[in-house]
Structure to design on (224 residues):
């Protein structure tokens, strides 16, 4: 068993089995890794490797690519809860010291008129696509993270007060999903319907699929 999410990603280099399905599009696991490596290289060039990266997106392939890219660059994904609004949402992002917030045109309005404490980039605009394209062919970095390297900041539901950011290291993420991963094979299909800012979505489907070589089907989530 791998010790880090980074190792799980690297193990899928060149894997031609279907790994990701979204709205009629498919990516082999090897393609998923290539997309993730391109974004990892872009993060490094932009000085964002090792920083906290806010992600405000539906369950899109881009989200998964960014998670894998963060794992490869010792970066930390801050999964923004899109049921939060205005100053509450901005406060979550400021509190977690994000260096950049990655969102798209369907979510950007949630940050309009508030100070989120970091620049906002749209991942569905042509500039982002062009920059990612310039980094295709990037290789797995030699500087690999340790198991204790922080990987996720996941917000609690806030049922007993303001949401709290729970720290999840790469090693903890692997340990948390190891039970589920042990029962899956590459013949299984896992559906990710829960929002990806929830830990259960990541530990119950995405990361076990990555570990076992299973096929994961993303269902876009439309918030209220």
């Amino acid at each position: 068993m791998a010790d880090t999410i980074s190792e799980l990603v690297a193990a899928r280099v060149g894997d031609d089995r279907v790994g990701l399905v979204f709205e009629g599009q498919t990516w082999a696991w090897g393609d998923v890794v290539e997309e993730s490596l391109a974004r990892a290289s872009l993060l490094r060039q932009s000085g964002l490797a090792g920083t906290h990266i806010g992600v405000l997106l539906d369950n899109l392939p881009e989200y998964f690519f960014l998670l894998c890219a963060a794992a490869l660059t010792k970066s930390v994904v801050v999964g923004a809860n899109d049921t939060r609004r205005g100053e509450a949402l901005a406060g979550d992002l400021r509190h977690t010291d994000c260096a950049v917030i990655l969102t798209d045109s369907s979510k950007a309005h949630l940050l309009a008129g508030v100070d989120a404490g970091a620049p906002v980039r749209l991942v569905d605009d042509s500039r982002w696509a062009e920059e990612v394209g310039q980094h295709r062919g990037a290789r797995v970095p030699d500087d690999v993270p340790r198991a204790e390297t922080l990987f996720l900041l996941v917000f609690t539901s806030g049922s007993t007060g303001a949401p709290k950011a729970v720290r999840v290291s790469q090693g903890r993420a692997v340990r948390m999903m190891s039970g589920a991963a042990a029962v899956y094979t590459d013949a299984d299909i896992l559906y990710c319907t829960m929002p990806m800012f929830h830990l259960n979505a990541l530990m119950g489907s995405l990361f076990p699929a990555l570990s076992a070589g299973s096929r994961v089907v993303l269902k876009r989530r439309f918030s209220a």
Notes: The chain has a mean pLDDT of 94.
